[in-house]
Write a structure and sequence with these properties.
By secondary structure, the chain is of the alpha+beta class. Helix content is 65%, strand content 11%. The chain has two domains: 217 residues, Cation efflux protein transmembrane domain (Alpha-lytic protease prodomain-like); 91 residues, Alpha-Beta Plaits. It has eleven helices and four strands, in the order E-H-H-H-H-H-H-H-H-E-E-H-E-H-H. It has a four-stranded mixed β-sheet. Helix 1 packs antiparallel against helix 2 and helix 5 packs antiparallel against helix 7.
């Protein structure tokens, strides 16, 4: 016997509207910053700022991919996709991380080549100003986007937030390199090239923070360490349940899918067993908003001991989760 149920703690239309809004704002900001940094890098003779402009330009692509992807993962379930299309969001996050890493490789190649060449000249003050504007605006955009991403449980949006953060952090060494080259152009001109290389460290770090949880989700890793533990507690405290085992959880975009086996008294009716399963289901969905679907398998008491080859409960569910999103952030 089994029961299944769906529950969305945030309406899909409202969730997608918030994602679209913050992404459009980020898209406009990226357009402005890309133009500003390209112009400042060229006019100010700074390779580090030009490299930073390329980073901002890469964010434009991820913004567009995210806006297009919302339509795809929001499609209702169909015969070919009975579990929905939410994994498209995870695939987009993976794409964003890989794309960011490739941008970093491109910048490394150009920076290493540039160190051996003569510098374009003393960097201008305009390059330093552009770096400062980028740091402030992109760090602000990162915090705002991450807040919305955690609120909507959107892995793709959180990945996009990391693009903003990496852009802000990459502008810092770029700005410091420009400042050093301005103060001592004859001795520290090479710092501009080194600054471009340091930018790539932040790019690769951000790429890892994006790719790791996306891969974990695609491999059906446990979404959050506390989910299986709290599931066991909630189910075990339900009247009529004598034993809980084989508790599992996995993510599909913003949804967490779970299933568990419960044991009940062997002499009760099928209807009574079904009622206990329904109580379990409603308790879990009410106390764990991130769980949107649960399947309960009802078995007679002692069944687990009679079948020792059953799947064992998850002992160590700690897996990569959405970057910097704890339970309080997601429930806010």
């Amino acid at each position: 016997m089994s029961t299944a149920h769906n529950h969305n703690h945030l309406p899909t239309n409202q969730r997608n509207r918030q994602i679209r809004r913050i992404t459009w704002i980020g898209l406009v900001l990226n357009i402005l910053l890309t133009g500003l940094k390209f112009a400042a890098g060229i006019l100010g003779h700074s390779q580090a700022i030009v490299a930073d402009a390329v980073h901002s330009a890469s964010d434009l692509g991820t913004d567009l991919v995210l806006l297009i992807g919302i339509r795809a993962w929001s499609k209702p379930r169909d015969k070919q996709h009975p579990f929905g299309h939410e994994r498209i969001e995870t695939l987009l996050a993976l794409f964003m991380g890989i794309f960011l890493a490739l941008v970093g490789v491109w910048i490394v190649q150009n920076s290493l080549r540039g160190i051996e060449e003569a510098h374009l000249g003393k960097p201008g003050l305009i390059a330093l100003i552009a770096a400062g504007i980028s740091i402030v605006s992109k760090e602000t955009m990162y915090r705002w986007t991450k807040h919305v991403g955690c609120k909507t449980s959107s892995m793709a949006l959180i990945a996009n937030a990391w693009h903003h953060r990496s852009d802000a952090m990459s502008s810092l060494p770029a700005g410091l390199a420009v400042l050093g080259a301005i103060l001592l152009p004859s001795k520290w001109a090479f710092l501009d090239h080194i600054g471009a290389l340091v930018v790539c460290i932040f790019l690769f770090h951000a790429a890892y923070k994006i790719i790791s949880p996306a891969v974990a989700e695609l491999l059906d890793a446990v979404p959050k360490s506390h989910v299986p533990e709290e599931l066991v507690q909630i189910i075990a405290q339900t009247p009529g349940v004598s034993l809980v085992h084989n508790v599992r959880a996995r993510s599909a975009g913003a949804r967490v899918l779970t299933d568990a086996h419960i044991e009940v008294a062997p002499d009760i009716t099928v209807t009574a067993g079904h009622d206990i399963a329904e109580r379990v289901k409603h308790r879990v969905l009410a106390q764990l908003p991130e769980v949107t679907e649960i399947t309960i398998h009802v078995e007679p008491h002692g069944d687990f001991e009679r079948h020792p080859n059953h799947l064992k409960p998850i002992e160590d569910p700690r897996q990569p989760s959405r970057p910097d999103c704890n339970s309080s952030a997601k429930k806010s």
